[in-house]
Amino acid sequence: MANSVDEETLVATIQNDPRVQVLEDKEQKCVAALAQALLHVEEDEDSRALFDDAGALIRYLRARKWNLEAAEEMIRKTAAWRKAYGLWEVRAGSGKDILEIQNVTGKIYVRGFDLEGRPIIVIKPRHENSSDVKGMLLNSVYAMERAVACIERYENEALRTGTFVMDGKVTSTGKFVVLIECNEFSISNMPSPSVGSEFITIMQNHFPAARQSVPHQPTICFHAALQCLGHVHGPNHIGKIPSC
Questions:
Q1: Rounded mean pLDDT of 55-70?
Q2: Residue 8 · residue 46 · CB < 8 Å
Q3: What is the pTM of this model?
């Protein structure tokens, strides 16, 4: 655990971060309070690039509508999930062989930005090539991590050049979008319900940067799959998914 001087420095660094400075006063206080509350790290938590990152703190607070206790609970659960999942090892290259197999058909990847500057995760269910549930989820988590990396890269560049502004773009919203290409989606290439359910759970609970999922040309089969997932995650959430 860091000493008191290091702790004071960390909190001050977060408070002085340009991403925090452009927030309203009450929001700045929330960020500082969350940073202070997260100085103590539990043994089952991996706090790296999470508790000490102003952008991450803001994303979790926004996800919980600036409710400090709810945001702390959410971010601590993510830290525990990261450690149990071995996310840092994945970032370092663990599971490379599995990812190569999962990615060979191009069924999920990060490519381009929407009109508001948010990174896009493209999912093409028709290219599903695996029945390895753990591998499929690892590939999905990897894609979400790449989308967050895009957000962080743009944020860091804006901070470096002094151009960070609250303009609704990726540099200030910290969001990514999931685009699901539904053409040729059918029972034969549909991922198992357990994979879809776990994907949604991980995205909801541990990736507050997720903005929304947008199905492109959804089929009857896709709508049936959504209804099944709605029984698990609630129709209110699933019903918010727009179509294009």
A1: 94
A2: no
A3: 0.79
